[in-house]
Amino acid sequence: MEQMHRRFSAEQVRVLLERYGEGGLDRSTIEETLGIGRSRFFALLKQYRDNPAGFSIAYRRVSKPRLDAYVEQEIKEQLTVEKGLIDDPSLPITSYNYSAIKDRMGKAGLQASLPTIITRAKSMGCYLPHRKKKVHDREVITTSIGALIQHDASHHRWSPYAKEGWVLISSIDDFSKCHASG
Known about the structure:
3 domains
């Protein structure tokens, strides 16, 4: 149902409340007509009785920004740090870690929700959509554990705090792709 201030004018509601005060209409009839409950009826009646000439049902949303300026500034600073890590070609960092930003801010006593941080990141150009995964079109079938071990190595500066790169060697046993028959 549409909100009352969109369906009725203040004058129409004022006439109904006047009739209620004169005894011409009962409360339940007005509630049904306006599509409101008892609490809302009495709130309107009080508002009308307090200031009949200035009575209004206009909807005014007055809200302050949800985050303080220093929290907004901290989000921007943290996103700038993350952007620097991503833009550094010597680091293998390819995506923003919004949860880490939220955690660091929490440790500093500042609260911001993850969706808020992501929204600010998008507005600052600090957002990368998820990359599509490459399709692995090879299938290797092995018959026993250890029959096929895949090795991979890469040399990166794995931490932004490291002065030099480290070599990471990983080995994966591909037995999990085995289709054993029994």
